[in-house]
Structures are given as C-alpha cells and as structure tokens.
Design a protein that fits this description.
Blueprint: H1 3-15, H2 22-28, H3 32-37, E1 40-44, H4 54-78, H5 82-91, H6 95-107, E2 111-112, E3 118-119, H7 141-149, H8 153-159, E4 164-168, E5 174-178, H9 179-182, H10 187-200, H11 204-219, H12 223-230, E6 236-242, E7 257-264, H13 266-277, H14 279-285, E8 303-313, E9 323-326, H15 330-336, E10 339-343, H16 344-362, H17 373-386, E11 393-396, E12 399-402, H18 403-407, H19 411-432, H20 441-456, H21 463-477, E13 481-484, E14 489-492, H22 494-513, H23 517-527, H24 532-539, E15 547-551
Parallel strand pairs: 1-15, 8-10
Antiparallel strand pairs: 2-3, 4-5, 6-7, 7-8, 9-10, 11-12, 13-14
The protein binds zinc ion.
C-alpha cells in the first residue's frame, strides 16, 4: 500500500462521525491489521543481472534456493510453533485471513516487530519469548546460569556459543545441541544448494567461500568460511549463515540464520575507489589543528556496494537492512577486521518510499526538486569513509588513550554526528578542488536536510538520531537551515551551509582530539535534543510508511 492510500485510510477513520452504527464502522473502518501493514510499503526490489556470466546465473538460482532454506531455519529459531502456524494461516483464504498471513510473513512470526513484539494472532504467547526457540520456553535466566555453574569450562563455552541450542534432555536437565544436529533436516539441504552454486560459478573466491560455508553448515565451525567471506571478490556477492544475536533477548548468545544474495554494483564500487584515493587529501584539509591530523592514514576498512536479489531468514523480517557490518566473531575481527556491505537498491527504495514524501512535507517548495537519490547515496558512502578519518588514538595530558574511551557513553552519538557532517565537509572539499561536479552542491545540502527528519523520526535515544538532532539544532542556530514558522517548512541557506558544516566538523573533531568529555556532553546536551519545534514537524509525518515490504521478482523460479 502506498502512503497516499495509508493517509486516505487514516482520514476515513478520522472523519467517521460518532453517530455511525457499529455495523457501518465494521464495513468502513480499516482493520487494525491493515493499518499496521500499511506501515510497510510494498516495493519491488530488483537488480541488473545482464552482465553476469552464464555460470554465475546458474549459481544465482541455487543461492536463491539456499536463501529459502534460511527462511525455514529462521522461522523455527523464532518459535517452535511457527512453521505449523504459517501453514495454518496460509490455508485461510478469507480477506482477514489473507491479511493476517501477509503480516505474519512480514514479521516472520505472529509478533509485530514495530510494536514491541506484541502478538497479532490469537492463541499465541502475548509477546515473543525472550529466549526465542534457542532455549526451552520454561527456562529462566537464573536456571541457565545455575546449570552453567555445574559444567566443565569447555562445555560452559559451548553452552554460551553462537551455534548451539539448549534443550531439555529426558529427566528435565538442560543439554547442549549443536546447530548441525538441531537442524539436521535443513542444513544439509542448504549446504547442497551452496555446493551447486560453487560448482556453477566461474569466480574462484566465490567458489571457495560457498564450499567452506557448506562445510560449516555441517560442522558448526564457521571460522574458515568467515575468512573466505572477507576475501570474497565476485560479481555475485553472498552473505549466508547464522550471524546476529539480537533475537536471543535472554543472553545475546545465539545466532539467527539469514541470507543476503546480491550482485556487486560496479559503478558505485568504482566511485568508492575514487573517494578512497582522495582520503589523505581530505584528512590534510580537516578544519582542525595540523597536529590533530593523521599524516599517514592506514588502509580503509573494506566496503562493498551491492544490489539485493533476495534476502532469507532474519534479514527478511520487519524493517529491512540497508547496510551491515560482519562478521561478528571476535577471532575473525581481530585477525582480519570486518567488512561493510551496502545494499544500494534497498537504500534507493527507502529513499523513494520514505524520504521523498518526508521532503514533500517539510521542505520549502522552492527546494523540493533538489532532493535526489544520487547525492543521498554519495553522502552515505562518504559517511562510512569518514569514520576512518579524524582523531582516533589520542593523548590526553600525555596519557595515551582513544576517543572512544574518553567520550564514554557519548562516543557513538558524537562519532555518528562527526561522520555525517565531516562527509559534507569532505564532499565540499572535493567539489572545491574540481574533483567532484559542482552541480551536486545544492542537491547534497537539500537532500541532507530532508534526511535529518527521516533519522530523528523515531526518537533520539539511538546514536544516529541523536547525532542528527545535534547537527539540526547547530545548523538552525548558525543560519545554515532556515525555518518558515507559518508553513512549518525548512530550507537550506546556501550562502551559510558549507561554512557551518565546516565549523561543526572542526568543533566535533577538536573535542575528540582533546578527549574533552565535558565539552562533548555540553554540546550534546544543548544541541542533541528533541526541541518542541522539531517534534511538531515530526508529528506531521505519521502517515508516511515506516519501511518497505520488499517483493523480489528475481527470486521467482
Ligand atoms: Zn556511521
């Protein structure tokens, strides 16, 4: 459902007179499920496969099947009753039944992810069990810890491991079941599809990764395949396996299965390489004391830009991932670092479905046409790169430290604000030196302004949102953004924007270089807040979808 239709439904609800009979209400009022579902705008996600070799095309078809196995694994990991419930809901062909099935598939279970995991299917637990299906439903945190105390050290580590489930053995005691045994009916099938793909592709790094990953599905030893994933350099780019631990709300120990089957975006990869070649130029120009600059930047963390073909498992559920950092295994991260993958077509879909309608409501009409995806995505790329620039290892009164240590609980929000505003500074610097086309200047600023409202829409407790609120208030105070209080719209003041972005970059980075926690706190307390004016504007955005519900035509057989 598009935002116009969602708005119309809300309007119908608001216009209903109190005198309506209940029968009329039943007919006119949208069902709660339909309203909830309208928060996800159905969106086609597709990618250009024409440049793929015939072998890679065959591989892609096998990988799509492997991703579908991740769906089944994840459904089972979420809740023991999930697979049967899915079949039951799918059989209900009444309009209400179809709606419920659709919402179940968006959430990959009977609990609504945008509503603190509240149940929307009668006869299920009121909220999702905190331990999901990784542990027995009746097991408590205390019960697990008491049992852990009775185990030898090696078993204790296995019990807390990413790739084991905890079950009740006969007699009621807890026992450790490796994933390879727990999902013995599904993991061999997933491994088979990976091997088919490995046999078909002509890319050696992909073949290595898929072969090692298939082995890992059967052995629960993911280390070598994680390393191979770091080395992956292939037109078909794949991330598949047990990764994130968020669904284990008891301990954050257990990993959920997911898949991102993607195709490398060659044009954006080239752009990224171009920026990477100019990072030292930007570092040398940072608006901070020369002593705070890094005269020799190390190798930047790897970034891949890809287009999504299909997701599987946890990646399919709820709000869609637009970028991720993996792996999580500390052994691999220590040895090889981690890799950031950015899903360009997902970013573009969210831009069209969410940012454009926001811009239409909050921007001054004279600037709305400057909102564009190209500068939006370029700014995101620059944001990621700028995390690597500026102060990191610092000296505080002769004592060696890091920005992260000194900024403590403020470090994330402050670092996100830095990456955002320094990305503006970096792009302005490249434009000034003729390294980027000057026609981007205005769209960059206006799109950034619209993006602020998208980021702070769900509050400022999260680091990105708080960092954006800081930039918003600072720019408003310093005249880079101007508010029209009659229309409640905002516009960029182009004569001030670049200078204010540069000044804020300098202020944040200087505080970081000096490890000045008190100054960071003062800045976040005065600027990184939800002002009444900002809240009023956000209140007008309620009918705009929260996220997309993707349809993947390339995943159809
Ligand atoms: Zn960031």
């Amino acid at each position: 459902m598009n935002s116009a239709r969602a708005a119309a439904l809300l309007l119908i609800g608001a216009l209903m007179a109190p005198g309506c009979t209940s029968r009329e209400e039943e007919q006119i009022a949208p069902s709660k499920l339909a309203t909830d579902m309208a928060r996800y705008a159905p969106t086609v996600i597709t990618a250009d496969t024409t440049a793929l070799s015939p072998g890679d095309r065959t591989a892609l078809a096998s990988l799509v099947r492997a991703a579908a196995v991740m769906d089944r694994l994840f459904l089972r990991q979420t809740w023991g009753g999930n697979e049967e419930m899915m079949r039951r809901l799918a059989a209900d062909q009444t309009p209400a039944g179809r709606e419920r099935y659709r919402y179940f598939m968006v959430n990959m279970g009977p609990w609504s992810r945008l509503d603190a995991n509240a149940s929307f299917v009668p006869g299920t637990p009121a909220t999702r069990p905190h331990g999901a299906n990784y542990y027995p439903e009746d097991m408590t945190r205390e019960g697990f810890n008491a049992w852990l105390g009775t185990l030898p050290e090696a078993d204790r580590q296995r019990a807390k491991g990413y790739f084991t489930a905890i079950r009740r053995a006969s007699g009621g005691t807890l026992s450790i079941v490796p994933f390879a045994r727990e999902y013995a009916d599904l993991l061999p099938e997933a491994a088979m599809h990976l091997r088919e793909a490995a046999a078909a592709t002509d890319n050696a790094s992909l073949r290595t990764y898929l072969t090692l990953r298939a082995d890992a599905f059967l052995s629960d030893d993911y280390y070598r395949s994680d390393i191979a994933w770091m080395d992956l350099d292939s037109p078909v780019d794949v991330t598949i396996g047990p990764y994130e631990v968020y669904m284990d709300e008891l301990f954050n120990y257990k990993a959920a299965f997911e898949a991102f089957i993607t195709i490398r975006n060659e044009a954006e990869s080239k752009k990224l390489g171009y920026f990477a070649n100019h990072l030292q130029t930007i570092e040398n120009a940072l608006p901070i004391k020369p002593a705070y600059r890094n005269p020799k930047l190390g190798a930047a963390a790897p970034i891949r830009v890809v287009d999504l073909v299909v997701t599987g498992g946890e990646a399919r559920a709820g709000v869609q991932t637009a970028a991720f950092n993996l792996p999580n295994d500390e052994r691999v991260v220590t040895e090889r670092g981690s890799k950031r993958v950015m899903l360009k077509n997902v970013q573009e879909a969210k831009f069209n479905t969410i940012l454009k309608p926001i811009a239409a409501l909050v921007l001054d009409p004279s600037q709305r046409n400057d909102v564009a995806f190209e500068p939006f995505f370029t700014h995101i790329l620059a944001h990621e790169l700028m995390h690597g620039l500026g102060p990191h290892a610092i000296a505080v009164r002769g004592r060696k430290s890091t920005v992260r240590q000194e900024m403590k609980e403020l470090s994330s929000a402050f670092e996100e604000a830095k990456a955002d505003v320094a990305a503006l500074f970096a792009l302005h610097t490249l434009i000034d030196r003729g390294l980027l086309d000057a026609s981007m200047t205005k769209p960059l600023a206006v799109t950034f302004l619209a993006g602020i409202f998208r980021s702070v829409r769900f509050g400022i407790t999260e680091a990105h949102g708080r960092g954006m609120a800081l930039q918003f208030s600072y720019m408003l105070e310093n005249g880079a953004i101007v508010h029209d209080s009659t229309a409640d719209t905002y516009r960029v003041n182009f004569t001030r924007f670049a200078e204010v972005a540069k000044n804020l970059t300098g202020e944040i980075m200087t505080i970081q270089a000096e490890g000045d926690y008190a100054a960071a706190k003062k800045m976040l307390d005065s600027y990184g807040v939800m002002t009444p004016g900002l809240q009023l504007t956000l209140d007008r955005l309620k009918a705009i979808p929260v996220d997309i519900a993707p349809e993947f035509p390339l995943s159809r057989p």
